[in-house]
Task: inverse folding
């Protein structure tokens, strides 16, 4: 096997292994950095931590998760619309809990990048994020 074929095979294998961890496509102005993923003692559940950065003025559309989401705002400010509740704007140090399956969206109303640490307690094997229309 020549060097080019070996490199192509390595890229295919790496893609197959890493795709489930970072399967969500990146939206312009939104950066998702997968930090860790671990099985929990509760059967069929896993914990996933992701850093999400939203550029100024960027919105991330309505979506759901197959479990709970616990948010800690790291930097800037972020506005969340959760279910039918009025939007809430959080700043660095604020937290938010989103129940399993609850439609929600986020946007950065500020002039600097807004960042959150998102911790998900979700059903293992299901897509982490489902976009809604």
Result:
């Amino acid at each position: 096997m020549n060097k080019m074929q070996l490199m192509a095979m390595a890229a295919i294998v790496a893609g197959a292994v890493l795709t489930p961890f970072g399967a969500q496509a990146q939206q312009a102005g939104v950066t998702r950095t997968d930090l860790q993923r671990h099985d929990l003692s509760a059967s069929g559940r896993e914990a996933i931590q992701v850093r999400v950065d939203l550029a100024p003025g960027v919105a991330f559309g309505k979506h759901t998760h197959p479990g709970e989401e616990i948010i800690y705002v790291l930097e800037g400010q972020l506005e969340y619309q959760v279910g039918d509740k009025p939007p809430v704007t959080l700043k660095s140090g604020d937290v938010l809990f989103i129940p399993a399956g609850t439609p929600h969206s986020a946007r950065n109303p500020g002039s600097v990048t807004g960042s959150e640490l998102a911790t998900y307690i979700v059903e293992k094997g299901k897509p982490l994020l489902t976009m809604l229309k």
